[in-house]
Amino acid sequence: MRNLIISAALVAASLFGMNAAQAAEAPAAPYVELANAVPVAVPGKIEVVELFWYGCPHCYAFEPVINPWVEKLPSDVNFVRIPAMFGGPWDAHGQMFLTLEAMGVESKVHKAVFEAIQKEHKKLTDKNDMADFLATQGVDKDKFLATFDSFAIKGKIVQAKELAKKYEISGVPTMIVNGKYRFDVGSAGGAEQALKLADKLVDKERAANKAAAN
Fold it and tell me: How is the beta sheet containing 174-177 ordered, strand by strand?
C-alpha cells in the first residue's frame, strides 16, 4: 500500500512538472486584453487605433507599412490615429496633430510633418515655428494659430490623454483593436506582424458581433 501511495505521488509530481514545463514553454500572447473595454468612437464599427508621436523614429518607420494597410481596410473598420501626450515635445506635437486634424488638413501634411522632425531634425515644439513650417505646406498660418489655442483643441487634448490612460499605454507605436486589445510593434514581432495581428483581432471581433446578432 505504501508503495502505491509513493508511486501515485511520483506520478502526480511528474505530471505537475510536465504541466509547469509546458506552461513555461507556451509563448505569451502578443497582445493584452484590457480589463475594462474602452468605448469606440463610431458605434457599430470595429475600431483600430494607432497611438503615435511625431518624434518617435519607430512610428516614422511604421508609416510606410501601416498607411497602405489603412487604405485597404473594409468598410466595417474605423481607423483612428491618436497622439500620445506624455509631456514636453509629446504634448506640443500632439496638439499640432489635433489642430491639423480639426482643420481637415492633417492627411495632406502628415508625411511632411513626420519628415521635417525625423529627417530634417526640426523641433517644431513652438507654435509659431509650426505655423511657419506648415505655411510652406499650404496651411493657413493665422487659421492654424487660432485653432491651436482654441477651446475645442483643449478639449481634444484632454480626451486624447484620457484615452491613453484607459488604454494603459507606456510607449509608441501602440495599437488598440476595438477598445479591447492592446499591442505594440515590438510585442507583435515587427511591423508586418503587428498588422497581421490587427487583422486577426478584427476578424475575432467581427465573428463575435455576428454571433451576438444571431
Answer: 32-33, 181-184, 174-177, 46-52, 77-83
| 144-160 confidence digits (pLDDT tens) | 999 999 999 999 999 99
Can you give the residue ranges of every domain in the chain?
A: 32-213
Cell of 111: 508625411
Phi, psi of 19 (to 5 degrees): -65, -40
Give CATH for domain 32-213.
Answer: 3.40.30.10
| Contact present, 135 and 141 (Cβ < 8 Å) | yes
pTM of the predicted protein model: 0.86
DSSP collapsed to 3 states, 68-137: HHHHCCCCCEEEEEEECCCCCHHHHHHHHHHHHHHHCCHHHHHHHHHHHHHCCCCCCCCHHHHHHHHHCC
Cell numbers linked to 108: 495632406
Q: Are 144 and 131 in contact (CB under 8 A)?
A: yes
